[in-house]
Amino acid sequence: MKDKGFITSGERNGEKVTGFDKGNSPFEYMGDQVKNQKIAFTTTNGTQAIEKSKGAKKVIIGSFLNVTAVTRYLLMSESNILVVCAGWKGKVNLEDTLFAGAIVENLRNHIEPDCDAPLAAQHLYNLAKNDMVKFLSNSSHVKRLNRLNIHKDIEFCLTPDQYPILPILSGDILVAR
Amino acid sequence: MKDKGFITSGERNGEKVTGFDKGNSPFEYMGDQVKNQKIAFTTTNGTQAIEKSKGAKKVIIGSFLNVTAVTRYLLMSESNILVVCAGWKGKVNLEDTLFAGAIVENLRNHIEPDCDAPLAAQHLYNLAKNDMVKFLSNSSHVKRLNRLNIHKDIEFCLTPDQYPILPILSGDILVAR
């Protein structure tokens, strides 16, 4: 991919892949470092979740960093909504569930849950929202990340609305809108 | 199965199956009605969850009605524990998650969660435990059951420790222990 002009990026089990230009920390993707660049990105769970979602009418990428942009897009949408939580090593992690819960909370007057999973996520979000970092400090995923010294990444990723953009899947490419 | 001396029982989508002796209400299975009888039972989710769990070393059946018996058994066990939530029409429901959370809470000093799902269930149980009926009154499953007029069943099933027994799978048969 490097030959084709891509920045190569990604992680396996939370650590940068040998030979790749960049790892998984958001701080490696700021400002001029990546402006107008194409990035080839692979992660343990995220890119697989996107791959498995390709049957959907639209695939958008959300996190707390763009939660309002995601909410606005979904409020305008008339399709069914499935929040796919990427997880950690193929398993459930609470950060994802909290974000799903934030979406349910934001859309609560506009949706009819299809099962109790959205309600569970909503309860957890409301329980955690006043101090998500503290709430998550007891979760297994964050404990693992602490071992990898990237607590700073997590704290940043839990900060709402740092970006107004919405990545949308177009073919094999995520395009910011 | 009737020819073989079994009571035939079960539900599909929450309602008794035509031609069967009994449905899914616990009140149909009390005292002399079923004492020393063999019951052939099928449900929308529960019996499938048991079928899919057959690879396990031991399969035991738990609910709030025997939560202490389940906890005691698991405390003595040295195996990994997987709580399989049967669900509702193949989907997540909160009652199951609350029960899973109660098990995590009871075993909290004895287990190392394998992902964040047990922690999420534990948080939800602790949020709900003082009034589970009220907590669940907003869940989609209970709303559906309300339509079927079996709120009484739910309330009973949320009552801890009505029974000291533990059903254990032995071949194709659940045997009370």
Task: Characterize the structure shown.
Two copies of one chain form a homodimer. By secondary structure, chain A is of the alpha+beta class. Chain A has helices at residues 46-52, 67-76, 94-106, 117-128, 132-136, 140-147, 151-157, and strands at residues 6-12, 15-16, 38-42, 167-170, 173-176. In chain A, α3 crosses α4 (117-128). Chain A is globular, with a radius of gyration of 16 Å. The model of chain A has no long low-confidence stretch (mean pLDDT 89). The A-B interface holds A 87-88, 91-94, 97, 113-117, 119-120, 123-124, 127, 138-141 and B 87-88, 91-94, 97, 113-117, 119-120, 123-124, 127, 138-141.
- Helix percentage range of chain A: 25-40%
Task: Please count the helical segments of chain A.
Answer: 7
Question: SSE order of chain A in H/E notation?
Answer: EEEHHHHHHHEE
Biggest chain-to-chain interface with counts: A-B, 21 and 21 residues
Number of strands of chain A: 5
* Contiguous runs where pLDDT drops below 50 for at least 5 residues of chain A: none
Strands of the widest sheet of chain A, in order across it, are 2-1-3
Strand content of chain A: 5-15%
Radius of gyration computed on alpha carbons of chain A: 16 Å
Structural class of chain A: alpha+beta
N- and C-termini, Cα separation of chain A = 24 Å
What is the overall silhouette of chain A?
globular
Q: State the oligomer.
A: homodimer
| Main sheet attributes: strand count, strand direction, barrel closure of chain A | 3 strands, mixed
Mean pLDDT of chain A: 89
